[in-house]
Write a structure and sequence with these properties.
- The chain has 25 helices and 19 strands.
- The strands form four sheets. Strands 3-4-1-10-9-11 form a six-stranded antiparallel beta sheet, covered by helices on one side. Strands 5-6-7-8-12-13 form a six-stranded antiparallel beta sheet.
- Strand 5 and strand 6 form a beta hairpin.
- Helix 5 packs across helix 20 and helix 11 runs antiparallel to helix 17.
- The relative contact order is 0.14.
């Protein structure tokens, strides 16, 4: 893991001159373990972890003004200096408009500004501490700092309503540690904190101005090309060059690297056969420069881009995608590697792994991804986020009705009717979209609160059922049906208090609102996956989650994105604009494969170990579930009952995360005794009758 951490004190010199920290329990200086100081008191900032030298830049304008940028940023030092001058007056948005994925921290006198990103893949957290405010890009260091206990209300909301911002609000799994929402910045002035949005939000009252589809797609192409070019322009890294033990009899450089679990030097990409990863691989291979592996490092690939495809031998259904990946890999600038995996790499097969900053459903499949990524490059492109930024959330149909664009509903509704085979589908979908368009936000949230109290969890069937269920402001999560009545009541209270707090609602159309929430949920889980499947010295790049790419995708007309196959057509146009026209037949076809089949098979194979995991679970000790109910659900799902598998993944991953957190020893800080860490007292039973889990 890599993060930055710092604090803003209430008064200059409150922690002693030149100490770059405060004092611990025994009088020693308090600072993060494994850190490099970027600037010192009175408001110090550290970079923690294995940052590369080119990923940390600090530019000073004068003694009182400086900017730190951590991550991949395409701005030159002069552009950073100009951005710092502009930020002196309080402007923020331009700090987030450079290509790449990064976190910017600006210090002007005693005012500190920390900018989060639009997707939520690079979040910012804060907590009151020592009369001021501590902040970080990871929640666990702040939880260690204040010895935070678990926030059981947040954990309940994470299971009952994970896609509903009103339930989660700004909370984290740690009590007292708060999250800055995507599209916002944390502003600190001598310890006092403020959270301010830097991105304009579309109004409920005024229709969005009509956008030209061609120019909007051109903007997406330009943003994606610039995002890829920024990565290609960064310095190349040779992972593990200082740790290679030298020649081993019978092993070449590539074999030694694989034995150490180190990635290949240079730049590579996923090549799943889908349109998102294929677009990035072809862009990276086709742009001017040296995209691929470094010469002389054992692969024989020269400057060709390393393209990695995962072939699941345990579950079929992806033959067409694999064939398309092979056709794409015939490009002379690609070096294709196929990684195979059997039953041992199914979801739930290997549940060992490191502690992540937060829980996420990707924990159940992290080992599967780790094997694929270990065959990749030191800088590895992934297509994560493309579906969330380009596709239309079903609730966007209500947005079209609000803007009086009914004719654009014809093709998506017809596609649903064809998939379902019923002539009643158009009327049902139109009725649900019109009902959502006329439902105020607070009423939608109150309806969800009532559904949780009454335990109403209808199972949507097929594509039409899922679309109809999504045509709401808020809906229960797939794991909600297995929570206790007390936990559901707690989330219901959170939702009701949220409607009182927000007053007029989110100020957005329902489709846009739901799409942003889904993107934030996906980005948070990608962050968990990146930590859980981390390969040493490797960087995962998800250009679709870059600020500028997200902005360009949000400018796409809704009438364009709701059409069937819109994502594939947009990416095809992006590639054509970049000079790539020879795509294999069927490219961009929707995948009927088998992530669900793999999850079901993995759950069946690992059923015994999962049932053992829930023999005496921490979730039951916390009062969130009854263990016997979850054990019954696991047996049913393994036997083929139509239960929501993503809900079971939520439960298993949260139980795993809690166990790893409580088994942890040590802390992120020096200057404190070993007890100064998050959740020092473990989980205290909250509801006696249910504490044992049954």
């Amino acid at each position: 893991m890599r993060w930055l951490v710092g604090w803003s004190s209430a008064a200059a010199g409150a922690f002693g001159p030149g100490s770059a920290g405060t004092t611990g329990y025994d009088g020693e200086t308090l600072h993060p373990i494994g850190s490099q100081l970027l600037w010192g008191d009175p408001d110090p900032l550290w970079a923690v972890g294995d940052w590369r030298p080119d990923e940390v830049r600090v530019v000073k304008a004068d003694a009182e003004s400086r900017i730190a940028v951590l991550g991949t940023c395409g701005a030159s030092d002069e552009e950073l200096r100009l951005g710092l001058f502009t930020a002196r007056g309080g402007a923020l948005r331009h700090l987030t408009a450079w290509p790449g994925s990064y976190t910017a921290v600006v210090k002007v006198g005693r005012r500190i500004t920390v900018c989060g990103d639009l997707a939520g893949a690079r979040p910012v957290f804060h907590t009151p501490w020592a009369g001021g405010t501590a902040y970080a890009t990871a929640a666990l260091p702040l939880a260690d700092l204040i010895e935070a206990n678990l926030d059981f209300g947040h954990l309940a909301a994470l299971l009952a309503a994970p896609d509903v911002p009103a339930a989660l609000h700004d909370s984290t799994p740690y009590e007292g540690v708060r999250r800055v929402p995507p599209g916002h910045a944390l502003i600190l002035r001598a310890g006092a904190r403020e959270v301010a949005g830097y991105e304009p939000v579309s109004s409920l009252a005024v229709a969005a101005p009509p956008a030209d589809p061609d120019s909007a797609v051109d903007a997406v192409r330009d943003a994606l090309v610039e995002a890829v070019r920024t990565r290609l322009a960064a310095p190349r890294h040779v992972p593990g060059s200082d740790m290679d033990p030298g020649p081993v009899p019978g092993m070449g450089p590539a074999e030694r690297r694989a034995a150490r679990g180190m990635p290949v030097p240079g730049i590579g990409a996923d090549l799943s056969g889908g349109p998102a990863s294929g677009t990035l691989a072809l862009l990276a291979a086709g742009l001017p420069g040296r995209p691929g592996t470094l010469l002389g490092h054992g692969t024989g690939a020269g400057e060709r881009l390393l393209a990695v495809t995962f072939n699941d031998l345990a579950v079929g259904g992806r033959e067409a995608e694999l064939e398309r990946a092979g056709t794409l890999a015939a490009n002379p600038r690609l070096h294709h590697v196929v990684v195979t995996g059997g039953e041992e790499l199914l979801p739930y097969g290997d549940l060992e792994g490191p502690l992540t900053d937060e829980p996420g459903p990707s924990l159940v499949s992290a080992a599967r991804h780790r094997v694929r990524l270990a065959a990749g490059s030191a800088d590895h492109f992934t297509g994560y986020g493309a579906r969330q930024v380009l596709d239309a959330h079903p609730a966007r149909l209500a947005d079209l009705l609000m803007d009086r664009k009914r004719r654009h509903l014809v093709r998506p509704v017809a596609a649903l009717a064809k998939a379902d085979g019923s002539v009643l589908v158009p009327a049902r979908v139109y009725s649900a979209a019109r009902r959502l368009a006329r439902t105020p936000y607070h009423e939608g949230v109150e309806t969800l609160a009532d559904r949780l109290l009454r335990r109403r969890f209808e199972d949507p069937g097929g594509a039409v059922g899922a679309s109809l269920a999504a045509l709401t402001w808020a809906r229960p999560g797939p794991a909600a049906r297995w929570l206790t009545g007390e936990a559901l009541a707690e989330v219901s209270v959170l939702l009701q208090s949220a409607t009182n707090r927000s007053g007029v609602g989110p100020g957005q159309r329902p489709g846009d609102y739901r799409a942003r929430a889904a993107l934030a949920r996906h980005a948070a889980d990608l962050r968990v996956l990146e930590q859980a499947a981390e390969v040493r010295s490797q960087r995962l790049h998800a250009p679709f989650l870059d600020n500028q790419v997200v902005r360009a995708c949000r400018a796409l007309p809704e009438a364009l994105r709701v059409q069937p196959g819109a994502r594939a057509e947009i990416l095809r146009t992006v590639l054509e604009g970049a000079g790539v026209t020879d795509l294999p037949p069927g490219w961009g076809a929707p995948s009927h494969a088998s992530s669900t089949a793999a999850a079901r098979t993995g759950l069946r194979v690992a059923a015994d170990s999962l049932i053992s995991l829930f023999t005496d679970p921490l979730l039951a000790e916390a009062g969130l579930i009854e263990a016997r109910v979850v054990r019954k659900a696991l047996r049913g799902a393994a036997a083929g009952e139509p239960l929501p598998l993503d809900g079971l993944a939520d439960l298993v991953s949260l139980e795993l995360w809690l166990r790893r957190l409580l088994a942890r020893r040590g802390t992120c800080w020096t200057g404190t005794p070993a007890r100064a860490r998050a959740v020092p007292a473990g989980i205290a039973p909250r509801r006696g009758a249910l504490a044992s889990g049954g």
